[in-house]
Amino acid sequence: MPSVTAPGPAVDVSKARGKKVFVIPLVPNPFNQAIEKTMKYLADQAGIKYTIYPNQGLVSQWVQAFNQAISQKPDLIILSTAPDPRELAPQLQQAKAAGIPVLVTHFYDQTDPPPPDCLACAPGVTALETAPFHVAGKAEADWMINDSKGKAHILIVSSKDILPSPPTVAVIEKELTDHCG
Prior knowledge:
Elements lengths: L19 E6 L4 H17 L2 E4 L6 H14 L3 E5 L8 H9 L4 E8 L17 E5 L1 H16 L16 H15 L2
Parallel strand pairs: 1-2, 1-3, 3-4, 4-5
Helix pairs in contact: 2-3, 4-5
């Protein structure tokens, strides 16, 4: 089992009471909706005003969401479950100029460097909540190897324009190459 190391000292959640969070999700799907529901529940428990901008994953909708967020002056904007910050550079700069921090979740692997060194972070991404994409890719390959006893015929479907996809596919391919004929 992997070990977990706290990313820092404990947070006094009572200090967040009355703060405003504006969330821009990627697309509506069960995974993202479960995250949104949990975020809303936790925000309510902490006394945080939680606003979500539902959309269908179009860049134009993310831009509209950013414009609405900036006009509402929240304490934090969250690009939740991977809206691509590379598509939102002008809006990130506007949020930074307005003093609004921006958190990006589920778009960067846990091995990626933190802001400002991560790709597309310099224009105004304040922080990242990374995901273990490479670990997941290795686990997927290991499952395929084990399930097929090393004899699977595999088609990997990916999208090269989604930042974490190419390195995750490379991890899957390496694991398959290392352990299968």
